[in-house]
């Protein structure tokens, strides 16, 4: 049995076809040609084994987040294939469609349901989620009254407790106070220790080095390197000098 | 294949749908002083405005004009909000759509279900007006259920196409408000079908609101059955549009987050 949980083969994606346009442009066909095509991904291929923690590095606008969104199943590549054998996938990032007028408690429900938990599962995890986010009594207040730190703690806490087989992280660590940063790092480490697959995008090479077993370096939509963190990061640093 | 997926998704997300409806009802209320009362005030105030125009200025109103008007205003409120919000729903939910996969037909389903609950409150008001005009109640009231089901399916299915258009063309959400205004005035809402010339009357058969509004009036004002033949035709039309809309969204929804 193959232990490859994720197979990405020659994935291309460009932002041409579905660029929102004014009706005016549709009527005046001429202008339509001017719509520029932006190739976000130009043939990315890689494989991830079960339990691996993979980091994705690259400069801003290189296509890292686009790739994560394809893995999270919210974008379809124009060509190429993505075979995902993980039972559940969660893209962890901040403010996941929180409704500001609802309480933290209700947002946990809404969020949990969106992320694929059943009501029963949410009930079981509710206490753990609230405790981890350290919201205390605030959980009964509307989210619009929360500080940005509280919001990010809450969304982190929900996503962590969803317990997905494949966890996707898009720049998470730069939020929260020192205390919560430490706590979330501990949680991440515990995720590495269990057999979960994690794919994270980060600009912090230090974190990538300490948490990841594999690194993918994307530049301008192309894979420039894939393999051992030390080597790939060294090559990346060399290129940006 | 799509049909199976549709029912599967409907089942999978049923708790999310119910919870979303509840929470959007609640969220709408939390910022207003009068709260629930607005669901009654909104159609009531509209009714007063149009009654003023027709009864006082044009002097063209027949018996129980406010009631006649109300039978159109209530369902139209649901339809117009569903189509209007449906057009911008993907953008409004960009945070969700970009991060987790959610079948997009659920977005408009939540909108129309939320407004159906509000319509329920409006129907209470409608019933009290029926009593006020001393119109006897009868078992025909139950026939509002099949009428509403067809109405619901028609506007929900239409909103699926507007969801798609709204993503492709940003100014669609501006345009739609004028289309909706025209549609309202082109429907027998504040005027009577007997005012039309025979040719125009034939044209009105192509406007589903003719059937829907008339059905509401048959049931609430005349205590008789709606025109089931026309309802049947619109049911068939709705199911076809729904089927096409579901396929359209399934095929293109994963490209939407490129555009927003």
Provide structural commentary.
The complex is a heterodimer of chains A (241) and B (260). Chain A is α/β, with parallel strands linked by helices and 241 residues long. Chain A has one domain: Rossmann fold (3-Layer(aba) Sandwich). Helices cover 39% and strands 24% of the residues of chain A. Chain A has helices spanning 23-27, 29-32, 64-71, 104-114, 119-133, 148-162, 178-193, 205-211, 229-240, and strands spanning 4-14, 39-49, 53-57, 79-84, 89-92, 166-170, 197-201, 214-219, 222-227. In chain A, α4 (104-114) packs across α5 and α4 (104-114) packs parallel to α6. The relative contact order of chain A is 0.18. Chain B is mainly α and 260 residues long. Chain B has one domain (27-259). Helices cover 76% and strands 0% of the residues of chain B. Chain B has helices at 2-12, 14-29, 37-58, 65-92, 94-99, 105-132, 144-168, 172-185, 198-203, 208-220, 228-252, 256-259. The longest helix of chain B is centred in the N-terminal third of the chain and has 28 residues, at 65-92. The A-B interface holds A 13, 15, 17-24, 26, 69, 72-76, 90-91, 93, 95-99, 101-102, 106, 109-110, 113-116, 118-119, 142 and B 13, 15-16, 19-20, 23-24, 26-27, 30-31, 93, 95-102, 167-172, 175, 252, 254-260.
Compact overview of the structure:
The complex is a heterodimer of chains A (241) and B (260). Helix content of chain A is 39%, strand content 24%.
Annotate the secondary structure layout.
The complex is a heterodimer of chains A (241) and B (260).
Chain A: E1 4-14, H1 23-27, H2 29-32, E2 39-49, E3 53-57, H3 64-71, E4 79-84, E5 89-92, H4 104-114, H5 119-133, H6 148-162, E6 166-170, H7 178-193, E7 197-201, H8 205-211, E8 214-219, E9 222-227, H9 229-240
Parallel strand pairs in A: 3-7, 3-8, 5-6, 6-7
Antiparallel strand pairs in A: 1-2, 1-4, 8-9
Helix pairs in contact in A: 4-5, 4-6, 5-6
Chain B: H1 2-12, H2 14-29, H3 37-58, H4 65-92, H5 94-99, H6 105-132, H7 144-168, H8 172-185, H9 198-203, H10 208-220, H11 228-252, H12 256-259
Helix pairs in contact in B: 2-6, 3-4, 4-6, 4-7, 4-8, 4-10, 6-7, 7-10, 7-11
